[in-house]
Amino acid sequence: MKVEGSYTFKADRRKVWDSLLSPEVLSSCIPGCESFEPTGDETYDVVMKVGVAAVSGTYTGKITITEKHEPDSYTMHVQGKGAAGTIGGEGVLTFTDIDGETRVDLTGDARITGIIARVGQRFMGSASKMLMNQFFDCLRSKVE
């Protein structure tokens, strides 16, 4: 499933870039994040509680930041597994200055398997958009 979004912040690019790479900000803004532990350079073990439609589950996984082109773009890889299936995906975040503000464009792919995919398939697009909006709204409150 393709995921994409565009989010504007009333802050300079450096501040937005630093916030999106801050373990404290990431852990507090990722919806359902219960644990966020650094395990290496730009790699984190995570525990998240995620729900789609009537199916929810706790997932353990990893978030890795790669292909950093500071302060223009980077790729975030997410993978996790739980009793209800697996989740995974990659997203490229691109940072652009626009009249004193910063726009972050996100494009990527998400993969979900198991019961959560079978039961919640109709809701996946709207659920992924809702989770992204929750994350970026939280980020906006911290950055601005």
Structure description:
This protein is an alpha+beta fold. The protein has one domain (2-143): Alpha-D-Glucose-1,6-Bisphosphate, Chain A, domain 4 (2-Layer Sandwich). Helix content is 28%, strand content 54%. It is built from four helices and seven strands; from the N terminus they run E-H-H-E-E-E-E-E-E-H-H. The chain has helices at 13-20, 23-29, 115-120, 124-143, and strands spanning 2-9, 33-40, 43-52, 55-69, 73-82, 85-98, 101-113. The protein has a seven-stranded antiparallel beta sheet. Strand 6 (85-98) and strand 7 form a beta hairpin. The model has no long low-confidence stretch (mean pLDDT 90).
Count of individual helical segments = 4
Going by helix content, strand content and strand pairing, the class is alpha+beta
Order of the strands making up the biggest sheet: 1-7-6-5-4-3-2
Mean pLDDT: 90
Percentage of helical residues?
Answer: 25-40%
Fraction in beta strands: over 45%
Low-confidence stretches: none
H/E element sequence: EHHEEEEEEHH
CATH architecture call: 2-Layer Sandwich
- What is the CATH topology assignment? Alpha-D-Glucose-1,6-Bisphosphate, Chain A, domain 4
- Taken from the alpha-carbon principal axes, the silhouette is globular
The number of distinct β-strands equals 7
From the alpha-carbon coordinates, what is the Rg to the nearest angstrom?
Answer: 15 Å
CATH class call: Alpha Beta
Terminal CA distance reads 31 Å
Full CATH superfamily name: START domain
As for the number of domains, it is 1
Q: Regarding quaternary structure, how should these chains be classified?
A: single chain
Largest sheet: 7 strands, antiparallel
